[in-house]
Q: What sequence folds into this?
């Protein structure tokens, strides 16, 4: 629940215990802005704050499904300059993400990893109940491939944010969000699913 500002204090606590962590971040937006509406803490800025505080192992950050309009001609420059791997949505179109997740598992290694999933990473055809929908997003099948592809990683926490049920009279966004959270619980270390 909530927006991506909740991830910032969670990662502060996680890093206090584990040190800088890897991040599997699914979203339409990088959430690495410096300021929004004059504020440094806003749902579009948390991962920049995390970088500034040394909460992330930047060589082990992957952002998947990124897309949408921007005021900047190179909107992913900050992320790439930090060492993040940015996987724009168009690289995911018409593809299984199983091979990508094999690469991500190699990149993450055995060190601690946090999963942060913004529901707007999915196309609004599947998840319209969010505050900042962007067309041409991921499918629910690809979301499952990402989450299930994290099985075996040293996951130390996860979240799913930006579900706004009042924007979806069908209830599908909330249903999808609940199922994705269930899937995240199933890939936590030590959870037996068979």
A:
């Amino acid at each position: 629940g909530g927006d991506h500002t909740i991830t910032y204090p969670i990662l502060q606590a996680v890093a206090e215990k584990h040190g800088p962590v890897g991040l599997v971040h699914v979203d339409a937006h990088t959430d690495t802005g410096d300021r929004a509406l004059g504020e440094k803490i806003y749902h579009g800025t948390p991962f920049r704050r995390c970088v500034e505080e040394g909460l992330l192992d930047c060589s082990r950050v992957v952002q998947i499904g990124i897309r949408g309009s921007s005021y900047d001609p190179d909107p992913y420059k900050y992320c790439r300059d930090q060492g993040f791997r940015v996987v724009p949505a168009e690289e995911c179109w018409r593809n299984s993400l199983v091979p990508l997740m094999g690469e991500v598992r190699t990149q993450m290694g055995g060190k601690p990893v946090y999963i942060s999933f913004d529901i707007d990473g999915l196309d609004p055809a599947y998840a319209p109940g969010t505050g900042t929908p962007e067309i041409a997003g991921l499918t629910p099948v690809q979301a499952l491939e990402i989450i299930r592809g994290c099985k075996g990683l040293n996951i130390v926490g996860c979240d799913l944010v930006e579900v706004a049920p009042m924007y979806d009279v069908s209830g599908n966004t909330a249903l999808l969000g609940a199922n994705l959270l269930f899937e995240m619980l199933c890939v936590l270390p030590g959870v037996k699913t068979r």
Observations:
- The first helix runs from residue 7 to 18.
- The mean pLDDT is 96.
- The helical segments are 7-18, 46-52, 77-82, 98-108, 140-148, 172-186.
- Residues 122 and 139 are 6 Å apart (CA to CA).
